[in-house]
Amino acid sequence: MADTPRPLPVVRAMIDALDRDLLQIMAKRMALVAEVAAYKRQHGLKIRDASRERELLRDRHEHAKELGLPSDEIESIFRLLMRSSRDHQAALRAEVPMDAASYTIAIIGGHGRIGRVMARLFGDLGHRLLLVDTDTTLRAEEAAAVADVVVVSVPIDVTDTVIRAVGPHVREDALLMDVTSVKEAPLHAMLEVTSASVVGTHPMFGPSVHTLQGQRVVICRGRGDAWADWVAQSFAARGLVITETNATQHDRAMSVVQVLTHFQTQVQGLTLSRLGLPLAETLPFTSPAYLLELYVAARHFAQDPALYGSIEMRNPRTADVTSAFGQSVHDVADILARGDQAAFSRLFEDVRLFFGDFTAEALEQSSFLIDRIVERA
Amino acid sequence: MADTPRPLPVVRAMIDALDRDLLQIMAKRMALVAEVAAYKRQHGLKIRDASRERELLRDRHEHAKELGLPSDEIESIFRLLMRSSRDHQAALRAEVPMDAASYTIAIIGGHGRIGRVMARLFGDLGHRLLLVDTDTTLRAEEAAAVADVVVVSVPIDVTDTVIRAVGPHVREDALLMDVTSVKEAPLHAMLEVTSASVVGTHPMFGPSVHTLQGQRVVICRGRGDAWADWVAQSFAARGLVITETNATQHDRAMSVVQVLTHFQTQVQGLTLSRLGLPLAETLPFTSPAYLLELYVAARHFAQDPALYGSIEMRNPRTADVTSAFGQSVHDVADILARGDQAAFSRLFEDVRLFFGDFTAEALEQSSFLIDRIVERA
Hints:
Two copies of one chain form a homodimer.
Chain A: H1 8-43, H2 50-66, H3 71-91, E1 104-108, H4 113-124, E2 128-132, H5 140-146, E3 149-152, H6 156-166, E4 175-178, H7 184-193, E5 197-203, E6 216-223, H8 225-237, E7 241-244, H9 247-274, H10 279-282, H11 288-301, H12 305-314, H13 318-338, H14 341-355, H15 358-376
Parallel strand pairs in A: 1-2, 1-3, 3-4, 4-5, 6-7
Antiparallel strand pairs in A: 5-6
């Protein structure tokens, strides 16, 4: 470094020029990714290649170190580039077989939030869409009668009614599928009202996600493996991660994954609103953990109470979950009131055992997320 | 794209070459950042320049769009580069005045987790360190007598004892400061046992953070503005974000920021461990929100129960917080048990009002974080 550094505007202009170069190279990189997509499609290869990803990250990490660059940050940058690259490949249909058939897909509730996601997903894969909603002249029964695939994507409260209305119109060689957050009842209803193929799905993400890459979807087979395989292949081609299970296991896991998670966020938000300390008075003191909880809670309450109400009120295990939660509140509060540090430490030990090996992953991932929170706050 | 794409290994080698170019440019960029640091130090400028950052992000975002690149991902990449750049400037002492005095700083508890962070921070700024801990031959009283600044960084349970032991040895022209998570009691004790300058601080981050850039620290002035200004300047020079307040306001905010946040995580973890569903059975069904809660909980229980026990047991408002939380559990559980969707929706309305304008920020930030979770899962 010179004793008299060049003036700030000069150096900044030089940085701007370098950043243009960075962007140009990224654009060239994206053009090459398009070639990768075409190659993978021609040769029936998957978009995601774990060993290539690992090797790429290891190599960039090492080179960053050699150049004296902060290697963790650089790794994050290449993770971002890789994800954009996968999304680009998916949009170019890299995982869609060259000879894939194009189907007519009726989406009942196609103007709703998940309905629009389904429409985009199947549209991207080159299928013809028939969107039905309360404001379309096309009626559900009409669409169901001509479609190869009928997707029921309506609020959970009317799912049963809609299934029973459209089910009898689905062609025997067609597929009836749903996207409801519970799986036992809708699958049962679908199998009852049609002899067509039946698949239950649960996309575990909301309509506000930026990309479908890596988002999770649960698939429960009802009747007919050929269509179930087609559903799995279609979701995978758009970058979704698939969990196959049966309806009972799905609904039991959701009593924790959805009911407990949402319930505690609701309790947290309600408590905050009742403590009498305005939010603005606490914001100058935010720690990353507090800010994270605030983001999660505020996001939750900005969403549709009808959706969450149904999810929690319809799960048969909700009362068990809320009662276990209440007992835990009582027990932890009691330890704190007694000032019993020994009992408090035992509690930590017990829960640590429950988390087991997952803790290592949690530490790494949460450190990364805290970094991102701090960097953007 | 050609009809017959080039073979995958060829295209991948071309991508590797482009990535080398990216890394080379980033290294050149970092060298320019060093010039920026030198210029800022000579001219007494701050590291952080909000208008330059805004303009840079706007410009890169726009150029990314022009090049057909995914502009949100590209913006994330430049945010990462900017933060690395700020951290590099801080390490080069960009915000430390050219004529800054070098002091002798005694850190009581210097081998502890926060003690080591303080040692690194003051060491980076060019001061001489005297580290005292239970395993050093140097005793706290000896170090306190010769130091310009005495930092008490010991477990909360012994903070009062240590303050009363070293306080009388601190020189009248020196500074006594602490880093405890509560502020009323330690400040009171420090003002009582010494007539030297006194500053209370609370670093709102743990020792595991990757960088100090943007982390928050609370400062409560006790006695002597000159030293308090020096503390604030030193923290700012290392990239910390400073909140100045008084001890009472700090402790009240912490009843929410720390006590409520940690309490609910403890209740969540305990409930999970008691529900009888092994973690592994739920992991194939993780949504981003559930995974986020799991990361936060597993991270929490991997940490020191003595630290959290003290924070929660010593806050005078803990009983109010846990009892409000228990009441909320009861109320939400009751609404769910009754299946009262109208009451559930009113609850959402109430809490939404509490979050107010913050919701917009929360939606943006949480979407970003969910993207990062999905990208790494």
